[in-house]
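[agent] plan:
  1. take the single chain provided in the ticket
  2. run structure prediction with default settings
  3. attach structure tokens to the ticket
  4. add a short note for the reviewer (M.T.)
[agent] executing step 1
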Amino acid sequence: MTFFRSNKYSSLADLVRACQAGDTRAQTAFYERYKSRLLGVCVRYAKTKAEAEDIFQEGFIKVFKNLSELRNVEVIDSWVKSVVIRTAINYYHRVTKEQQLHSNLADFEREIDSGDYGKIITRMDMNVLLGVINTLPDGYRMIINLHLVDGYTHTEIGEMLGISDSTSRSQFLRGRNLLMRKLQEKGITQYEIF
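[agent] step 2 finished; step 3 output follows
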């Protein structure tokens, strides 16, 4: 990584230790290392760019507040991403308390063959996919992001959102069906190669 060669931090471990020691230059370098990647994660969970920036800032406050407790530097990337994702979830709960996770979208209950779903998703341009995911209702968008994009299990999602894993599965299936319908409306079908 040219980043580490160009300054006094020869490795990620050195950078983390300097941050833990309160070195403000190291903290700035650490922040910059994650900014574009994790701001993109926040955009997936937020309704607007401004919300995404708020989530990212709040997440990084938590990262710096708890960085001294991190003992295994090898897991820093996944740990930072996890903190930011949990911050996004907490933000979602705080901002949308009055909304229920269960949306009534009976019009979109039509089941779509899961084989078609898998084929389309794996061949799609991620920017197109994320753009369509961002148009989903909040509850569906949250679960689709957690399960499909970030790879959390329904049990883990249930724990994070305070719902049962069966509710997570149900919301995922409904969200998936709505996502597939929106993709099909854009002319994206299982027959296209991306």
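[agent] step 4 note for reviewer: The chain has two domains: 8-95, 107-185.
[agent] ticket updated
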